[in-house]
Give the backbone structure.
Amino acid sequence: MTDLQRLRVKIFADGADLAGIAHLAQNPLIRGFTTNPTLMRKANVRDYRGFAREVLRLVPDHPVSFEVFSDEFLEMERQAREIASWGDNIYVKIPVTNTRKEFSGPLIQRLSAAGIRLNITALMTTGQVAAVTDCLTEDTPSFISVFAGRIADTGRDPVPMMAEAVRIMGARRNAELIWASPRELLNVVQADAIGCHIITATNDILTKLPILGKDLLAFSLETVQMFRQDALQAGFHIETPQPSPVS
């Protein structure tokens, strides 16, 4: 069983809560940060630029990904160039297609060739991985985010697909694969085992990191102790029924 000290996969924190980002920025296990419009909306973000600048103040050295939100490629490009100008550690998130299923490849080519670091997001097939990899410039660092957790939600095992994605992306030395939307701590171990470069993790997974590789007998005993303590605190008792008097 892998422990934290032996992990090769880089852990990126996924979220939009500024207090949480500030706390995690001090954690040496966290090597980068990602967010998206859905997470930002849940965090009640209203000022995109102001939010981004505060994140960059909190995270000056690690990679940070911010996403475009237009559905038109020309406007996506304008937004991407503007977002990229906010900091040297920014990766601009570009969806693999727009909502009309039009491939973002030409836009990816232009931005990558211009030296803009990209995080291509929402991929779910190896065909998409291959198509995006072909669009990336060799010398520009980039991420490709495959939503392995959502793949698993459909009943498919994402591990073979993610392993194939690692192989495909070997053609670009500056491209790194992100295992996105993990569902459990096991996914960190799986990503590490196949040589995936990065895994994103929300707080519910990050809080479980200290139990990675934990002794199972010790874990069993702690579970028994938890059940016992909760029963005592709840005041549970079961009385033995008294026999009914004979009339």
